[in-house]
Each structure stands twice: as structure tokens, then as C-alpha cells.
# Entry
Amino acid sequence: AANARDKKSKTGFRGVTDTKRKLKKSFVAHCSGKNLGLFATAEEAALAYDRAAKKKYGPFACLNFPGAADL
# Structure
């Protein structure tokens, strides 16, 4: 699980960025330049990224939650 956390990201998840809104905090997931949507938590956005990465890269995908069975 060494690749599960992205050290460069402030959220701690690969493919997830903070929207930096003052009134309501939300997170955006991106995979290969494609916006996957707006999410309430970083974990939800990370799961959306994992689903998209698994679909695109198959067994070679670098996932946030490699052991998650519901992808």
C-alpha cells in the first residue's frame, strides 16, 4: 500500500483535489484529465478515482484503496 497515498496531494489521495471553497468544503476527482465529479469527502472522491483508474488501466492502476472489493 505504499503507492496508496499521494505525498504531493494536500488531500492525501491520488487524483483528488480540494475545491478551496470558503462556505462548503468539497473535493473533485480527476483521472487522465477528466473531471469525475464533485464529492462531499475526500474518501468518496478517492473511490471514484479508483473506479475510473481501474476501468482505464486495469491491473496496472495505482489505486488509493488497493484492497477495496467494490471497485
User: Anything to note?
Assistant: The first helix runs from residue 42 to 57.
